[in-house]
Design goal:
By secondary structure, this protein is mainly alpha-helical. It folds into two domains: 122 residues, 50s Ribosomal Protein L17, Chain: A (Alpha-Beta Complex); 40 residues. Helix content is 62%, strand content 11%. Strands 1-3-2 form a three-stranded antiparallel sheet.
């Protein structure tokens, strides 16, 4: 029975599973996005996120050195550890957690396994622009309704003037082909 056992063993023994997750984590850190099965992506998320969190603890030089060693014990790849601490860590410094995103991609035709893409959230170009602006704290201002009303009225008066201008340009372009035809 597996009462209370929440770890997905992925059909592998402990050593094989740890090697698999280590290799997937190295590839995720190196390439910022990988495609794998949904079960492996979910297992990888629980493996990688604590490692990424360790990059944020940079109070003293000893603590940084210790965290490098701890992360290296999980990954066993100097290049991936260096990439994690030098490239990934500055981007995720303001994020309180949730460093990865899993997107389902459908099924694999050969064995009907559910595929998923797992990526580092701050390295996505599509979603990254809105996240970068959201990371900066928004200015909190208090505006009264009295100042908002004149602005809306000014916008309302500008809108009809803009439509009249576009109608005038359309008439001018309509008359030009007729003149050219005659």
């Amino acid at each position: 029975m597996r009462h209370g056992d929440k770890q997905n063993n992925l059909g592998r023994k402990k050593a094989h599973r740890e090697a698999l997750l280590s290799n997937l984590a190295i590839q995720l850190i190196t390439h910022k996005r990988i495609v794998t099965t949904l079960a492996k992506a979910k297992a990888l998320r629980t493996y990688v996120e604590p490692l990424v969190t360790k990059t944020k603890k940079t109070a003293t030089k000893e603590e940084i050195s210790h965290n490098h060693r701890v992360v290296f014990s999980y990954l066993n790849d100097k290049a991936a550890v260096k990439e994690l601490f030098t490239v990934v860590a500055p981007k995720i410094a303001a994020r309180p957690g949730g460093y990865t995103r899993i997107i389902k991609l459908g099924i694999r035709p050969g064995d009907n396994a559910e595929k998923a893409m797992i990526e580092l959230v701050d390295f996505n170009e599509i979603y990254g622009n809105s996240i970068a602006t959201a990371a900066e704290p928004a200015k909190k201002t208090r505006r009264s309704k009295a100042t908002a009303a004149p602005k809306k009225a000014a916008e309302a008066t500008e809108a009809p003037a803009a439509t009249e201008a576009t109608e005038a340009t359309e008439e001018a372009t309509d008359s030009t082909p007729e003149a050219a035809a005659e």
